[in-house]
User: Fold these one by one.
Assistant:
Number 1:
Amino acid sequence: MLGGRRSGRAGRIVTAATALFRHIGHRGVIMEMVADAAGVTEARAYYYFKDKATLFVATAHAFATEMLLVKDEPLRERLLRSR
């Protein structure tokens, strides 16, 4: 699960945002969509992440952390597989 070391609501928000950013793109995603997908209120999403840019950085950080933690295959192959 992408969420880095975050757990609970924040982790669910990062996971939902990651999926939406991948499928719709950064410009097409709004915080309300992320909150709905994560099963939280929009206010709760803003409690954890001050804006969409901050959330996007959190998803990138979670992705990078996940890629670095897997050590049984080369990084290039992991990155290609994650597309």
Number 2:
Amino acid sequence: MAQKAPGRPLEGLWRPPKTKPRGVVAMSRCACCNALLSDFEATRRHAMTKRFLDMCTECVNISFEGNLATIDRLDLLHENNLYDTYKEEDI
């Protein structure tokens, strides 16, 4: 049998670029309800573990009842990120 010359196994095949093209923005989604996350929500981290929460403000408040220490980027905070804690019966 004839032996193949050593070479790269995927030589000549197209490969996707390792970086995102300019102008492409990755959209993060809430791990609980699949809602799109704002920049503020997407950069929120757990205060002890320093890991991203990947949860929207509403799901964080419901899941942890407001008792979760987080690291937030307040420069990204917008009034749309504030969760209304009042129920309709309270109004």
